[in-house]
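Explain this protein:
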Amino acid sequence: MKESKGALILHSIFWAIILVAAVVIVITADSQITLKRELISFGLFGILNVSLFYINYIFLIPELIKRRKKYWLYVLAFFLMIAVAALIKTIIAVLNPADMMMVKGGKAEYNVNEYFAGRAFIGGFFMISSCIIKFTTDWFGSERIQRNLESERREMELQFLKSQLNPHFLFNSLNNIYSLAYQKSDKTADAIMKLSEIMRYMIYESNTPTVALSKEVDYLTSYIELQKIRFKDGAYIELTLNGEIDNQKIVPLMLISFVENAFKHGVVTDPAEPVKINIIANQKILHFSVVNKKNQQNKDAQGGVGLTNVERRLQLVYPDRYKLNVVNSATHYTCELMIDI
């Protein structure tokens, strides 16, 4: 039987308390202390008590309750074990009355029925204690397993979402570069170089749970520069950075979808209304926002893939630690994200 570290600690604490209580009872008892009495009480009776505890813990509960669901048989075995242990203790006490029974005025005085009832009570205490500790350790063990499974599921889902994000971004970027190449633009080589730098970050540097916020900002900047290359009339982006950008961490590739969405569905060629990207970071909160003028002629129905992806990632890695506010007005689209970092 393999026990967790927590279960072993719980067992150790229980038996330490029992030992201390037994010593206190012996010291404060009115009956005479003899070597034979203590050998029987701590030795033989101790073995019986420990046997009750662990037979119930190791065999009866797992076999009769958990595996076979024989509750009536378990109840029968429960009381039978208590009775047998109490009977054995009573027989030993009767055979050794001077050491095991109450001594008053030089005579051993005892009532067999009362003694049996007392030993049955002690046996019941160890059986019930065994049940409590067994169900407690099993519950915590089950919770630990569930947490591990949930953690593994979350990690697998995050990896899947991330694998969706990379091809999605690559698909859009390659479309842009294809357009440049088709037009025989001199910017094609620069665009390929920018894409290479971005993919290096996505493949090699973003494989950790968190990255420096400054690196994520550099990644966004490279992405913006790559997107600007494909606009002949220029792309107007205002990126504002404030606060402790260098000292904070963030889950990688968390912000790119918002910026990508602005380029894909917004108007970026209007100098009067540029895309506004604002990042403010302090020791506790990251505030990120993107505001863009809407392109009224954009009919692309697949534009929501990236934002759906990132919102699911937020739910997984920042549960109850983020607030996402999206305002879709007639003329503008605003995404505002606050994360407790």
